[in-house]
Amino acid sequence: xxxxxxxxxxxxxxxxxxxxxxxxxxxxxxxxxxxxxxxxxxxxxxxxxxxxxxxxxxxxxxxxxxxxxxxxxxxxxxxxxxxxxxxxxxxxxxxxxxxxxxxxxxxxxxxxxxxxxxxxxxxxxxxxxxxxxxxxxxxxxxxxxxxxxxxxxxxxxxxxxxxxxxxxxxxxxxxxxxxxxxxxxxxxxxxxxxxxxxxxxxxxxxxxxxxxxxxxxxxxxxxxxxxxxxxxxx
Length: 234
Hints:
The chain is of the alpha+beta class. Helix content is 36%, strand content 25%. It has 2 domains: 8-56 and 81-105, no CATH class; 113-229, Cupredoxins -  blue copper proteins (Immunoglobulin-like, Sandwich). It is built from 4 helices and 10 strands. It has a 5-stranded mixed β-sheet, with no helix packed on it. The chain starts with a helix and ends in a 5-residue tail after the last helix.
């Protein structure tokens, strides 16, 4: 019993239940979904465990067997109940997931910043369309993706060779970059800081070194950085 409840209690000590702290509005949506699913799973697990323990102790054998207990062949209301309730739970969880997914994947009609993210073996190139800035990394000097907080950033994801994956744990989501497929996501950072990014799809010998940083700035600081860096390739 302790082995089952121990991890549950430890995971529940923080408000994120083992998840990474979010740094974007999309990440907040995903974290909220995770919290809800966590508690639904905990309640259902506790209920099932309670029913199992109740059945074990309530109907345990207490003496010599003299005759078979009463045999019940069917209980239609009970069978309808334990069929309908799990089905209802699945429908509710599916609906909540779809609503959250639609919010996370929704694209703005007028993003504030547009960045073309290009992956290649084994590094990244970030090109800011309006600001005329290009940042390219190499294995010794990973690039930094600079983003403003409280602004919608459109990331256009593409690869020049094999499948890669754009993954920033603090955003609580990742997207694959597939040859011949232009994938787009919107990110709206909401916390100033510096975060780690990775390629989350094995892409060859130097996959483990295909990382980058994400630095989020206030809008004013981002504008100053863009003016200072405009027209230069870093």
